[in-house]
Amino acid sequence: MKLRDLLEGIACEIVQGDSGVEIHAIHFDSRKVGKGDVFVAQRGVSVDGHAFIGKAVALGAVGVICEDVPESLPDGVTVVKVANSSDALGWMASAYYGHPSREMKLVGVTGTNGKTTTATLLYEVARLAGKQAGLLSTVCNYVGDEKVHATHTTPDALEINSLMRRMVDEGCEYCFMEVSSHAADQRRVSGLDFDGAIFSNITHDHLDYHKTFRAYIEAKKGFFDRLSAKAFALTNADDKNGMVMLQNTKARKYTYSCKRMADFNCKILERHLDSMLLLLDGSEVWTKFTGDFNAYNLLAVYSAARLLGFEKEELLPVMSMLVPVSGRFETILSRDGIMAIVDYAHTPDALENVLSTISGLKKDGKVITVVGAGGDRDRTKRPEMAEVACRLSDRVVLTSDNPRSEEPAAIIEDMRAGVPEDACDRVLAITDRKEAIRTALMLAKPDDIVLVAGKGHEDYQEIKGVKHHFDDKEIIKEIFKL
Where is the motif Meso-diaminopimelate recognition motif annotated in this sequence (predicted)? Predict the structure, then answer.
């Protein structure tokens, strides 16, 4: 393609050189650049791509997209100055792959909790309705039936468009994707043609990156602000920041709620440990989910599907066929009646939601919680996680999650700061996660519930930069001898 074709829709402040130069590939990693490629110099969190422009040119780049024009470059290299290189990369990636998002109905899901469940269940709804669909999620990406391993909540712009092109080529009519606050802030979704956006909720998370809660909200709101007038914007009216998402969007505005009047409503009629009866849009539906948070997720899925044109009579039977996503409130029962629940809850709010659900469903048994916090991430939520666990559990075992480059014992000490004084005798600290799970299950008696929180679907533990195989569900089944 010619460089000028890749720059369609991008406001270029300066163009030095021939914009008609032929481009073989686009790269933002200078190490991957080859002869005839264009290099996009992005300002990253820890590295500034502008420092690698010389290297990219030496490797054969014939075009450079940047925010600051270099003082000198060899003849024959076209330089384009833009306001935001990351935004430009999104548009260029979309153009390079032939704008695949324009050939499908694309819906993005954002929020602190519920993104994976909502996006995945929408994918399942479309498939159960006989449609071809794609999925971009934390747990896994799907191109139709084909499973593609996920490395980030939202991949980079080039990978997104590459996957979407494959989806279109496979005949997919729909694509559902998680849009993390990082991805929105870093413009990884720029250039995509969204038909709808869903906001689930927003609570304390990712302050290591965004620094302030206001910046975190603004990152998610920015996703809605950039929607077109043809898209729908669907928000949770029960979240105190839900209506903020709709303030400046051009999209058609809709709300969903379990507590007040909204465009789409839901009420829980019966609750069980493995199911609940919902009054969904005025009709009773049995679902294979439990908990208020899942009622919201299912309502968001139903509402979005209706806005995409699915009929109510078609949807209601499908809603009852859906099953929980891997690592989201997954239950494992031992032979002697101890129930273990594996959940991805890794924020204070998510942990409170899961424990509140368990507390409302348990009969006579106790609740034992195994919980840790990730290393090299938002430290301020660590004591909050411990406080929630202590408040809503009978026993708590503090342990490792993914310590990454940090010392596990230091992370646990941060969590201990949130343990109330009167709860200290109910709290154990065991650094080894497998031993922590084993101890919690040994403490449990029949009818007790053991929540193993934080990792959910993950099948690894990252320690000192190395990923080791570790699956909470496998460990529990091994201890239960199942």
Answer: 401-404
Per-residue pLDDT of 312-345, as tens digits, reads 999 999 999 999 988 889 999 999 999 999 999 9
Residue (of 24, 48, 28, 46) closest to 37 by Cα position? 24
| Phi and psi at residue 39, to the nearest 5° | -110, 130
**301, 118 Cβ separation under 8 angstroms:** yes
Binding site members for meso-2,6-diaminopimelate: 377, 401-404, 454, 458
- CB-based contact 53:29 (threshold 8 Å): no
Looking at domain 3-95, its CATH class is alpha beta
CATH number (3.30.1490.20, 3.40.1190.10, 3.30.1360.120, 3.40.50.20) of 100-321 reads 3.40.1190.10
CATH architecture of 330-480: Alpha-Beta Complex (3.90)
Query: Where does the chain hold its CATH 3.90.190.20 domain(s)?
Result: 330-480
- For the annotated binding site, the residues are 30, 111-117, 153-154, 180, 186, 188, 377, 401-404, 454, 458
CATH 3.40.1190.10, the chain: domain bounds: 100-321
pTM for this model (two decimals): 0.86
What is the per-residue burial (b if ≥16 Cβ within 10 Å, else e) of 382-415? Answer: bbbbbbbbbebbebbbbbbbbbbebebeebbebb
CB 134 within 8 A of CB 123: yes
Q: What is the pLDDT of residues 219-245, one digit of tens each?
A: 789 999 999 999 999 999 999 999 999
| Binding site residue list for ATP | 111-117
Residue range(s) in the chain whose domain bears CATH number 3.40.1390.10: 3-95
Q: β-pairing, 283-287 with 133-136?
A: unpaired
Report how far residue 99's alpha carbon sits from residue 103's, in angstroms, rounded to the nearest whole number. 8
